[in-house]
Amino acid sequence: MLVPQTRNIGLPMMNLMRFKGLPILQQLHIEEQLLRTSSENWCIVNDGTNDPTIVMGVSGKPAELLEIESVLHDQVPVIRRFTGGGTVIVDHQTIFVTFICNKETVPDLQPYPRPIMSWSSSLYCKVFRGIGDFHLRENDYVFGDHKFGGNAQSITKNKWIHHTSFLWDFDVRNMAYLKLPKRAPAYRSARGHLDFICRLKDYMPRSTFINKTVEAAGTQFSLRSLELEAVVTCSETEFRPSTRFLTNEELAAAAAAVSEQQLGLP
Amino acid sequence: MALRMWASSTANALKLSSASKPHLSLSRCFSTVLDGLKYAESHEWVKHEGSVATIGITDHAQDHLGEVVFVELPEPSGSVSKGKGFGAVESVKATSDINSPISGEIVEVNTKLSEAPGLINKSPYEDGWMIKVKPSSPTELESLMGSKEYTKFCEEEDASH
Question: What is the pTM of this model?
Fold first, then answer.
């Protein structure tokens, strides 16, 4: 997407990488590596991932968040990612947008969760101007009181990452793998998954959303498109990401521990 | 939010007013800053008593982070390096690195934080302590800020944003 040169003057540089169907584990590994080892700013857009995958936040407890028996029976992969926040199930109908910034990059932005969340919502306000009743509700992107975008962050000494998974569409059956979380925003009002979330596709064409997001980013940053080959991957460096798949043994042990607890066993 | 923080700071001040505790100095940004501690620009505090230094995050930090729901801490007998991360807290969908203000050997870790991470919000300078360290280079403490300097640092940081 070309941006008039005059608009780039004085804007901080940001590398833009666009993917389609990149496996979510690979996306998260790239993000974690860039956060920890790169001194540049990055925007990553992944238009869908491949296989349905459950992604938990850093402190997620499988027994509390997942219907483990179904997950194990259906062999749904489960990832624990490096950022905070809740649990999602993602697939080819999920669109991912990530910003990784040095803490001085955005003027007047304090590197704490709420200011970063507020900044990101102002960017998406440009994307959804005049569309639905878009706003940031607690820490979710909503139309009205229905969530379509979930956010998570990680903040280091000198940088921060803010990434969002957007529900372009979803398979109702996939939601059955997720329990109702104990920690939920007040506005959820104990609604089940299907009463709580909505589909972005009902509001905007897919390519329009991605293009408008890149365009909105281009109003604040001077974007430079890069291919993945330009990024040295984890395997070529000493960096070891913490994001990983949970093993079947770990999931089974979590389920067994809960059963023992329920039976009053030590 | 400011009123709640003022009330919280005042309650902390009253709790900390006994002779054996550090003196309180209140910043205009309504976060508590204690005299007698040293502070890093990344908003961690250090209390050096004898051969042991206790480390945690400041009232300013916990207020800006929001409700802490999870704390990741190292194992005792590990080591920390000045300016490097030794753990993380999770709050409001974010993990935030905690950086050590000094170098040394970890001698104790606050295990209460695994079950009660909110202690960091309720009592950042007392019950919310994170690790105790045997400093390997006591001169590192001299490069940290005192309470007045840190108070000014917080005010300038908040004013510039």
Answer: 0.89
